[in-house]
Write a structure and sequence with these properties.
This protein has about 120 residues and is α+β, with helices and mostly antiparallel strands. The protein is built from two helices and six strands; from the N terminus they run ααββββββ. The protein has a two-stranded antiparallel ribbon with strand order 1-2. β5 and β6 form a beta hairpin. The protein is elongated, with a radius of gyration of 19 Å.
Length: about 120
């Protein structure tokens, strides 16, 4: 994506995956709200960003989109999650976890999950 490749088959080739797998992964990310500034054109099998502009030679003029420029069809943006202390259920120690992070407790190796 950073390279400006928006073709499902191109992304599949680069990552050595089946195009159907890449298509399903993108659709899942879009439906879960992880990619809120784009949609998949299933006819051309390309990812289209709402604020992409195409130059006269067909290249994307805006290949990298800053977070502030994203457009969401999902209503107001959800609040940004912050790191938090998580208490270990195994030994009671606390560790700082980032949103969606899962890591072992440094003392007893119990899995800690940010929730």
């Amino acid at each position: 994506m950073v390279q400006g490749n928006r073709s499902i088959t191109g992304i599949a080739d680069i990552n050595q995956l089946a195009p159907a797998t890449v298509k399903n992964d993108f659709l899942r990310m879009i439906n879960k709200g992880l990619l809120t500034n784009c949609y998949m054109d299933e006819q051309s099998m390309r990812i289209v960003f709402y604020n992409d502009r195409t130059t006269q030679n067909g290249e994307v003029d805006n290949p990298i989109i800053e977070r502030d420029d994203w457009i969401s069809d999902n209503g107001p943006e959800s609040p940004q999650l912050l790191p938090k202390m998580v208490e270990c259920s195994g030994c009671g120690s606390s560790s700082l976890l980032q949103p969606s992070e899962i890591k072992p407790c440094p003392y007893c190796d119990t899995s800690l999950t940010y929730r």
